[in-house]
Amino acid sequence: MDSFPAERSAIVTGAGSRRGIGRAAARRLAADGWSLGLLDVDGSAVHELAEELRDELGVRAVGMGVDVSDSAAVSAAVDEIENAGLPPVVALANVAGVSSPTAYEDLDDAEWERVLRVNLFGVHYVTRRVARSMVANGGGRIVSLSSVSAQRGGGTYSKTPYSVSKAGVIGLTRALARELGPRGITVNAIAPGPIDTDIMGGALTDERKAQLAEDLLVDRVGTVDDIAAAISFLVSADAGYITGQTLNVDGGLYMH
Question: Which of 157, 202, 215, 242 sits at 20 to 30 Å (Cα–Cα) from 6?
Answer without folding.
Answer: 242
